[in-house]
Design brief:
Radius of gyration: 33 Å
Largest sheet: 5 strands, antiparallel
Mean pLDDT: 80
Helix content: 40-55%
Strand content: 15-25%
Structural class: alpha+beta
Low-confidence stretches: none
Number of strands: 19
Length: 424
């Protein structure tokens, strides 16, 4: 026996079933993740390698070539491309569509680890990432500071502002654009070095050995055990400047009174690392704050939560600081959802009008009208249980389907009105 036969013989049961599908479909619709792109793992991997100071030719010959020779043997590689520039290189691997991207990631990691011995010793560990449109930031914020103190702005963003947004439900990662890490700058006085017969390597060795905290081991007694800690790191610029240079021209200074302090041969100040990227907002130097959402999270809800948190922390910002919304990709998603709701309501109204004109019965029209929300919210219920997201492609399909219904209803109404006028 078919479901249609059961529904015809038991109309009350059919109504209850339709109302249940609509009710749970609405609940599933409210819990669906909303995003701009589908949550799909494309079979594309990217290998990023960094070697500070290396020329593009060196990166290609000593880094890219060994890695390409290692990963090209992986099964399922469809296309491979690479790019080299000063200090960094990228290798992009595209696999067949039937290749499991997680398995491919493990195979690439194994091959890269095997080729590690062929790479230069000073190279940073290669970073392997998957390419996914969902990894793009959904919202960009701009932090500006009217005082000329970029060091404080960078510290405030990294130590305070980042934690404010990381704790928002649905936020996966907070990263910065145009960020430069704070660092101590040592400006060497060449005249003082020559006068005191001190080489630059002596200064570097002193900083490396004196500004470090190494494990001291432990002291064991009969019934007690103590951990030993060596307090070697400087806590301030003044302490850093008091580091003693234990070597002179490569020779160890035996007399402590003859040792020279770092501040006597160099100027130590708190600044930023080498500035290679600068971001601006309204022609003012700013720091970009990008927000990535978790996989499957509601992008619109996360963006609203970020904006609400932004209003909460505005009174807590340091004087002269301001955080503004620079880019919000969820506005397009909200507009798409709004347009879909308008098309849905228009389709229901026009379809009910056409059904009532042709059927001439409100009860029959009501039964037909129930099929529209039952079908739509039933689809939402299935999407929820299968962990799908409501994205622009889904909205486009629903809008087109609803548009077809609306166009058909309008066409029928036009024919009815034309027939009535011809009859007159």
């Amino acid at each position: 026996m078919k479901l249609s036969d059961i529904s015809i013989r038991n109309p009350v049961f059919a109504w209850m079933l339709m109302f249940a599908i609509i009710l749970f479909g609405i609940i599933g619709f409210q819990r669906l993740g909303v995003s701009q792109m589908p949550d799909v793992d494309f079979p594309v991997l990217n290998i990023s390698v960094t070697l500070t100071g290396a020329s593009p030719e060196v990166m290609e010959s000593t880094v890219v070539d060994p890695l390409e020779d290692a990963v090209i043997a992986i099964e399922g590689v469809k296309n491979m491309s690479s790019s080299s520039k000063t200090g960094s290189a990228n290798i992009t691997l595209e696999f067949d569509l039937n290749k499991n991207i997680d398995v491919a990631l493990q195979e690439v990691q194994t091959k890269v680890a095997q080729a590690q011995k062929l790479l230069p010793k000073d190279i940073d560990p290669p970073v392997i990432t998957k390419s996914n449109p969902e990894d793009q930031p959904i919202i960009w914020l701009a932090l500006t500071y009217d005082k000329d103190d970029p060091v404080y702005m960078m510290k405030y963003a990294h130590d305070i502002l980042k934690d404010k947004f990381t704790t928002i439900p649905g936020v996966g990662e907070i990263f910065f654009g145009g960020y430069t890490a704070p660092a101590l700058r040592i400006w060497v006085k060449s005249d003082e070095l020559r006068r005191r017969n001190i080489a630059v390597n002596d200064l570097v060795d002193a900083v490396t050995s004196e500004h470090s905290e190494l494990p001291g081991g432990s002291i064991d007694q009969d019934k007690k055990s103590f951990n030993v800690r060596t307090m070697g790191e400087a806590q301030s610029v003044e302490e850093f400047g008091n580091i003693a240079l234990a070597k002179r021209a490569g020779q160890i200074v035996s007399d402590p009174s003859q040792m020279v302090r770092l501040k006597q041969v160099a100027r130590v100040e708190e600044g930023l690392d080498e500035v290679r990227r600068v971001s601006r907002f309204n022609e003012v130097r700013a720091l970009g704050v990008g927000v990535r959402k978790l996989r499957g999270a509601n992008a619109v809800a996360v963006a609203h939560a970020v904006k609400a948190r932004l209003k909460e922390i505005e009174p807590e910002l340091s004087p002269g600081m301001k955080v503004s919304v620079n880019f919000d990709s969820t506005r397009f998603i909200e507009q798409s959802v709004h347009e879909m709701n308008q098309h849905l309501m228009l389709a229901v109204i026009l379809t009910s009008l056409v059904c009532w004109i042709f059927l001439g019965s409100w009860s029959a029209t009501f039964n037909v009208l129930l099929s529209i929300p039952t079908s739509i919210f039933g689809a939402f219920l299935g999407m929820y249980f299968f962990n799908f997201t409501l994205n622009t492609f889904t909205l486009l399909g629903l809008t087109l389907a609803i548009g077809i219904v609306v166009d058909d209803a309008i066409m029928v109404l036009e024919n009815i009105f034309r027939y009535q006028e011809q009859k007159k």
